[in-house]
UniProtKB/TrEMBL annotation:
<dbReference type="Pfam" id="PF00763">
    <property type="entry name" value="THF_DHG_CYH"/>
</dbReference>
<feature type="domain" description="Tetrahydrofolate dehydrogenase/cyclohydrolase NAD(P)-binding">
    <location>
        <begin position="142"/>
        <end position="280"/>
    </location>
</feature>
<keyword id="KW-0486">Methionine biosynthesis</keyword>
<keyword id="KW-0028">Amino-acid biosynthesis</keyword>
<keyword id="KW-0368">Histidine biosynthesis</keyword>
<dbReference type="InterPro" id="IPR000672">
    <property type="entry name" value="THF_DH/CycHdrlase"/>
</dbReference>
<dbReference type="InterPro" id="IPR020631">
    <property type="entry name" value="THF_DH/CycHdrlase_NAD-bd_dom"/>
</dbReference>
<keyword id="KW-0521">NADP</keyword>
<dbReference type="GO" id="GO:0035999">
    <property type="term" value="P:tetrahydrofolate interconversion"/>
</dbReference>
<dbReference type="GO" id="GO:0009086">
    <property type="term" value="P:methionine biosynthetic process"/>
</dbReference>
<keyword id="KW-0378">Hydrolase</keyword>
<keyword id="KW-0511">Multifunctional enzyme</keyword>
<dbReference type="GO" id="GO:0004477">
    <property type="term" value="F:methenyltetrahydrofolate cyclohydrolase activity"/>
</dbReference>
<comment type="subunit">
    <text>Homodimer.</text>
</comment>
<feature type="binding site">
    <location>
        <begin position="168"/>
        <end position="170"/>
    </location>
    <ligand>
        <name>NADP(+)</name>
    </ligand>
</feature>
<dbReference type="InterPro" id="IPR020630">
    <property type="entry name" value="THF_DH/CycHdrlase_cat_dom"/>
</dbReference>
<dbReference type="GO" id="GO:0005829">
    <property type="term" value="C:cytosol"/>
</dbReference>
């Protein structure tokens, strides 16, 4: 009988990061007389985005990070949003900036992201951060991809030498996780909507990262026995991008949905906010 996949428990790993981040935030506050500060920017009234921002602000309070909410109407133009983010980038009281994704369709999201100063890009969304990830240089990781790598690390899964197949090429998930895995010496295949024979690519993978945004696109029978499977999707009803039941029968490790990748994203965001605050303090000396 096949052995069921072991669980890559993102909730437990995130809790450990929250604990260490709380210690670091307290040390910073005691040394500098203020807490690290994360500015969250929300454009419009999308209910899911509002929920995510409230969750992130709640987690900030949990670990001793201050947060500043910047809420803009859905009618905000690209120029107005860029100007507001530029103000935050120039504000010495702000350590990190999070622009909640997605923004309204009429806004140039890339232009808004690029208005974030790289030193405050704690969500890892700028081209400067992507370049740092691609070249293995110091910088802030995109939080979900960085969370995936951290989750592998805490469970002793080393991607070096693995054939990793990433399904999805979005600029905030698929592309950066491919870059991070390549920097960690994996051999990386990035699949997307134009990829032919997706099942064949997945079947050859030692490590599968599903980040395509389509419910259960990756079927359990595609998974190579013993492969590590990271499901970065989330859809109503607790469904991911992977056929969880089928994958659990073949994979060696599998992230649950929910409770796998999701918790790691906010944990990395807050850890990187404290790191940004420390860098700003050192630069000001």
């Amino acid at each position: 009988m096949p052995v069921p996949a072991r669980t890559l428990d993102g909730t437990a790993a995130a809790d450990a990061i929250y604990d260490s981040t709380a210690v670091a935030a307290l040390e910073f506050t005691e040394q500098h007389g203020r807490a690290p500060l994360l500015a969250t920017v929300l454009v419009g009234e999308d209910p899911s985005s509002q929920t995510y921002v409230r969750m992130k602000r709640s987690r900030c309070r949990r670990v001793g990070i201050d947060s500043r909410a910047v809420e803009l109407p859905a009618s905000t133009t690209t120029a107005e949003l860029v100007a507001r983010i530029t103000e935050l980038s120039q504000d010495p009281a702000v350590d990190g900036i999070l622009l909640q994704h997605p923004v309204p369709s009429h806004v140039d999201e890339r232009a808004a992201f690029e208005a974030i100063a790289p030193a405050k890009d704690v969500d890892g969304v700028t081209m400067a951060s992507y370049a740092a990830m691609a070249f293995g240089e110091p910088g802030f990781h995109s939080c979900t991809p960085g969370g995936i790598l951290r989750l592998l690390d805490v469970n002793g899964v080393d991607p070096a030498g693995m054939h990793a197949v990433v399904v999805g090429r979005s600029p905030i998930l698929g592309k950066p996780v491919s870059a991070l895995l390549l920097a960690r010496d994996a051999t990386v295949t990035t699949c997307h909507s134009r990829t032919k024979d997706l099942a064949d690519h997945v079947a050859r993978a030692d490590l599968v990262v599903a980040a395509v945004g389509k419910p259960e696109l990756v079927r359990g029978e595609w998974i190579k026995p013993g492969a590590v499977v990271v499901d970065a999707g989330y859809h109503p009803g607790g469904i991911g991008d992977v056929d969880q039941a089928g994958a659990a029968e073949r994979a060696s490790w599998l992230t649950p949905v929910p409770g796998g990748v999701g918790p790691m994203t906010i944990a990395l965001l807050l850890e990187q906010t404290v790191a940004a605050a420390r860098r700003h303090a050192r630069a000001a000396v």
